[in-house]
């Protein structure tokens, strides 16, 4: 196993792990966004509560939660390791340092963007995910079954101005993070070609904007209109 450990602890190995886990997390964002669109249904939260109950009690989903957690952990761990390794390799700064000439803002600030997203993720899980696991939510009757009323927790949270602001700012940070990360993932995996790279870059921009705009629309909708 030594070759395996050496490969995935090397710089290129860590970049490959970051790329694979990043694309996996992108797929999670799409699924999560589609499910959360149930919040817009004018049914008192019934559809969203049924969706949340299914996601929290389906055995396949429960197993995938651990896979998702592993994806987050590996992605964050490799990001920190690569950042420290890059700083160590450039312990002495260049005499002429103009990174803005050959890189965009998001690529130069992935650490900052990632930190904002991580802080938001911790607060988000504490506010929504943890209560579903500890029984800290009120119950509601839906189709003859008593289930957690997560919709009420969402509605109440999205009436708090600072939480809405944090949510929107975090989605902006996530959009910038995805703009750079999406294209970089394909490039790291060797899918870099003058014919296809522009299309991948465009797809990355569209994906980043639409997904993050979709998430940001939810707290704004509740705060402004509900």
Automatic annotation (TrEMBL):
Record keywords: Membrane, Transmembrane, Transmembrane helix
Transmembrane annotation, as ranges: 16-40, 60-80, 110-129, 160-182, 203-224
UniProt cross-references to SUPFAM superfamilies, sorted A to Z: Fumarate reductase respiratory complex transmembrane subunits (SSF81343)
InterPro entries the record matches: Cytochrome_b-558, SQR/QFR_C/D
Coiled coil: none
Name this protein carries in UniProt: Succinate dehydrogenase cytochrome b subunit
């Amino acid at each position: 196993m030594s070759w395996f450990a050496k490969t995935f602890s090397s710089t290129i190995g860590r970049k490959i792990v970051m790329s694979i886990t990043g694309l996996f997390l992108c797929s999670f964002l799409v699924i999560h966004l589609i499910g959360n669109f149930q919040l817009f249904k004018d049914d008192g939260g019934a559809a969203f509560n049924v969706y949340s109950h299914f996601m929290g009690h389906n055995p396949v989903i429960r197993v995938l939660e651990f896979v998702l957690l592993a994806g987050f952990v590996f992605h964050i761990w490799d990001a920190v390791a690569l950042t420290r390794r890059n700083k160590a390799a450039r312990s002495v700064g260049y005499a002429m340092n103009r990174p803005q000439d050959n890189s965009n803002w998001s690529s130069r600030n992935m650490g900052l963007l990632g930190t904002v997203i991580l802080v938001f993720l911790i607060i988000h899980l504490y506010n929504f995910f943890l209560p579903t696991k500890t029984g800290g939510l009120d119950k509601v009757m839906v189709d003859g079954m008593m289930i957690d009323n997560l919709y009420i927790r969402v509605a109440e949270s999205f009436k708090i101005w600072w939480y809405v602001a944090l949510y929107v700012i975090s989605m902006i940070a996530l959009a910038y993070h995805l703009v750079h990360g999406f294209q970089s993932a394909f490039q790291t995996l060797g899918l870099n070609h003058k014919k296809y790279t522009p299309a991948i870059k465009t797809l990355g921009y569209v994906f980043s904007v639409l997904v993050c705009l979709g998430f940001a629309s939810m707290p704004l909708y509740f705060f402004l209109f509900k």
